[in-house]
Amino acid sequence: MPLTQSVTDQRNQDLISPLISSLIIVLFLFFIDEGYYDFRWMKEWGSWIVFVMYMIILFPVQWAISHFIFRDFNGWKKTVAMICISIPVSLIFFWIVF
Q: How far apart are CA 68 and CA 9, in angstroms?
């Protein structure tokens, strides 16, 4: 396998875990929003704008956690660590801040 393909694959892998954890967090927050506990918000385009804004804010935070704290983990171990550790920490942080 050429070196450039290996580097590209590694960069793509480094983005998957933060993207998955960001998506889970934002979907959970939108699920519990306004006390409906469902995904009715998906019918309104304005909610999608807010959803994208949340993702734009949260994804870099999750990427930083992945890149600096979990840099020694690879593959499924990194994804599990991101889901089990960074999601609860992020939710607690959002709860305290907002």
A: 19
Identify whether the C-beta of residue 7 lies closer than 8 Å to the C-beta of residue 70: no
How many domains is the chain built from? 1
- Evaluate whether 75 touches 20 at the Cβ level (below 8 Å): no
Is it the case that residue 5 has pLDDT exceeding 70?
A: no
Which of 68, 61, 66 shows the shortest CA–CA distance to 93? 61
CA contacts within 13 A on the Cβ side of 32: 7
pLDDT digits (tens, 9 = 90+) for 56-68: 988 988 888 888 8
- The CA distance from 57 to 50, in Å, is 11
Q: Could you tell me which residue, 31 or 98, shows the higher pLDDT?
A: 31
Q: Which tokens hold the place of 33? A: 């929003």
| Domain span holding position 89 | 3-97
User: What is the rounded CA–CA span in Å between residue 22 and residue 38?
Assistant: 19
Helices and strands in the chain: count of H runs, count of E runs:
4, 0
